[in-house]
Design goal:
Layout (H helix, E strand, L loop, with lengths): L3 H16 L9 H7 L3 H16 L6 H11 L11 H36 L10 H5 L3 E2 L2 E2 H7 L5 H9 L7 H6 L1 H5 L1 H8 L3 H11 L5
Antiparallel strand pairs: 1-2
Helix pairs in contact: 1-3, 1-4, 4-5, 5-12, 8-11
């Protein structure tokens, strides 16, 4: 159950991020909110916590508060349940889900192609199938990079393999995948939403018939 403390912490974190400044949280919340906060501010916090526990129980508080500061630079407690903030969060959440659905379809297609490729290839003891896939080469360039360039491996799956240490790009491979190299951090941030799906497909890859 979400508390007024959690709402307060998320608000202060987003406020600090918006101002690019550090922040401190009170050590004794119950004392702080009764001696330092106005009755109105406390009521807005309590109302927000109640709302997030009922009508919007699956909310991501950090992202919601960030929306608040996107709507107003001076986002305050009285704006916590403002319709503009709620609608912006809903719009962003829907866009994220649509993007995730598209990405998951791309990942599904990638793993089908990887599975097909591996059916005729030898296994390497001590490696998962995905690690094994990342070790095959076509000349000086690894097969996974060539398949990515050809559009047969999606960028999220390739970034996952790089992040897990399954592949370390050579200079030639970096030249062949400039988008991955230039946007790597952004891709990792986006991977937050689909990483469990990639991990699931990696586990399923272990079950392919040899």
């Amino acid at each position: 159950m979400m508390t007024d403390w959690e709402v307060y912490c998320a608000f202060r974190k987003a406020q600090a991020n918006a101002k690019n400044k550090p922040y401190r949280l009170p050590k004794e919340w119950e004392t702080y909110k009764t001696t330092k906060m106005t009755e109105k501010n406390l009521n807005w916090l309590v109302q927000a916590a109640r709302y997030f526990n009922t009508k919007y129980s699956n909310i991501d508080l950090d992202k919601y508060m960030a929306c608040g500061f996107e709507v107003w630079k001076g986002f305050t407690y009285k704006h916590l349940l403002d319709d503009k903030v709620i609608q912006l969060y809903i719009d962003k959440d829907k866009a994220k889900k649509r993007s995730t659905e598209v990405t998951e379809r791309e990942i599904e297609t990638t793993f089908k192609k990887i599975s097909f490729y591996l059916r005729s290839k030898p296994t390497r003891p001590g490696y998962t199938q995905l690690q094994n896939f990342c070790k095959f080469r076509s000349g000086e360039v690894r097969t996974c990079i060539n398949m990515y360039v050809q559009g047969n491996v999606d960028v999220m799956t390739l970034a996952y393999c790089v992040n897990r240490g399954y592949i370390k790009l050579t200079d030639d491979e970096r030249i062949l995948s400039p988008y991955l190299v230039q946007k790597y951090r952004d891709i990792l941030d986006a991977m937050e939403y689909v990483k469990p799906f990639i991990e699931q497909k990696e586990r399923e890859l272990e079950e392919i018939e040899r």
